[in-house]
Amino acid sequence: MAASVFSSELYSRLFPAGEAGKLFTDSAEVRAMLLVEGTLAKVQGEMGLIPAESAAFIHRASLEIPLDPGGLAEATGTNGVTVPGLVAAFRKEMQAPEHAQYVHWGATSQDISETAQMLRLRQFLNILSANLTETAQSLGKLAETHADLPMPGRTYGQHATPISFGATAAHWGAPLLDLLAELPALRDRALLVSLSGAAGTGSAFGPRAAELRAAFAKSLNLKDPQRSWHADRGPILAITGWLSRLATALGKMGEDLILFTQTGISEVTLGASGGSSTMPQKQNPVQPSAMVALSRQVIGLNTILQGAGLHRQDRDGAAWFTEWLTLPQLCLATASALEHGRALAASIAPNPAAMQTALSSTLDLLYAEALSFRLAEHLPRPEAQAAIKTLCKQSLAEDTPLSTLARAAYPDLPLDDIFDPARQTGQAPAEARAFAAATRAL
C-alpha cells in the first residue's frame, strides 16, 4: 500500500483529489514560500526597511529562480523546518550577496511557512467552493425533478412514514448550502498572514512592525491577524472544522446511497458501479463507499489536529510537525470525497418502481401515524393511538393490509387520502422545491 493513496499510481483513481492535489506537493510548497519571501522584501522596500534596489531584486528573483525541493531535504532534516535551507539556497542562487543579505529580513521560519500555507489553503477553498456549488446545484435538480416522488422514509433502518426522493436529495444538499454560506466568514477569520518574528514579538521590525504586517497582508490578499498566532492554532482548526463538517455531509450521502442500492432495496441507481473479481452479478457501490471511508478519515484526522492545537509556550515543534503529518491528508481526503459526491450528484437516479414496491409491501403500516391522527379527530388522542396500535398488531398477525382493517373498523371515516403515499409526504415536496430554488440562486 502506498504511503498516500492520493498520489498512488494504484489508488489515485479510487481516491481522486482533482486540482486540489496539485496544492499539496513539495514543489507547490517551495513555490509558495518563495512568493512569500519575495512579497515580504517588496513591502519592506516600499516602507524603506530595506534598500529599494535590493527589494526589487529579491522580488524579481523570487518569481524567476526555481529551487529543487530535493536539494532542501538534508537541511530540513537537520533544522526541522524547510525555511532555513530554502533561504540559504535562494541567497546562493541569486548570486548577488549585496541584495541577498536582505532576504527574510526580520522574519522567522514559521512566518514564511504558515503564510505560504495560507496561500495554498486559499486556493484549496476556492476549488472546493466551485465543486461544492456544482454538487449542490446537481442535487437541486434532483430535488426539483423528484419533489413529488414518494418513497419510504426510514428511521432506525425501519420503514417510518412516506417522504419524497426530492426531499432526500434536499437533505443531502442542505448542509452543503450552509457550508457555502459560511465560506466568506471563514476566509476572513482564518486566511491570515503570519509575520511576528522569532518569539512572536516582531521586535526585529522595530516600531513599524504592525504597519509592515498590514501591508504584507494586503499585498498577498490575506487577512491581517493584528497579533501573533504562532501558538494559536485557531485559524487552522477553523478550516479543518469546516472541512470535517463537509466530509461528514458527504459521508452521510454515501451511507444512504449504499443502503439505497442494497440488494432487495435498489431504490437508486448509480451512474457507475464496480465489479467483483469472482461474482459476475455484483454491481458494487464503489463511489459511495469511498465517500464514507474518506469521511471517516477526515473526522479522525481532525481529532488529531485538535489535540495538536495544544501548543506549548511560544512555539511547539512536536505539535507543529503533527499538523504537517495530518493537515494535507485531511484536505485531500475532503477534496476526494467531494470529487465523488460531485460525480454522484450528477449521475444518480431514483428507481420509482422499486420505491412503489417498497411502499406497497408493508401492509400499509407506513400510514399508521396518519391513520391515528385521522381517528383522533373523533376520539381522544391516546384512545386513537391505542386503537390503531391494535389494528397494526392484527395486520401483522393476519397478514392483512392496515387499510383493509381500517375501512372495516371505521366505515364512516374518510381514508382514501390516508393510504395515498403521494398525499402523505407532508412538507417534503415543498422542502425539496425550496432547496432547489436556493441552489438556483448560487
Automatic annotation (TrEMBL):
Entries under PROSITE patterns matching the protein: FUMARATE_LYASES (PS00163)
Record domain Adenylosuccinate lyase C-terminal: where: 363-436
Top-level taxonomic group: Bacteria
Entries under InterPro entries matching the protein: AdenyloSucc_lyase_C, Fumarate_lyase_CS, Fumarate_lyase_fam, Fumarate_lyase_N, L-Aspartase-like
Pfam families xref list: Lyase_1 (PF00206)
Keyword Lyase: yes
Gene3D superfamilies in alphabetical order: Fumarase/aspartase (C-terminal domain), Fumarase/aspartase (Central domain)
Molecular function as annotated in GO: lyase activity
Keywords: Lyase
Family: Belongs to the class-II fumarase/aspartase family.
Protein's UniProt name: Adenylosuccinate lyase family protein
The organism of origin for this protein: Thalassobius vesicularis
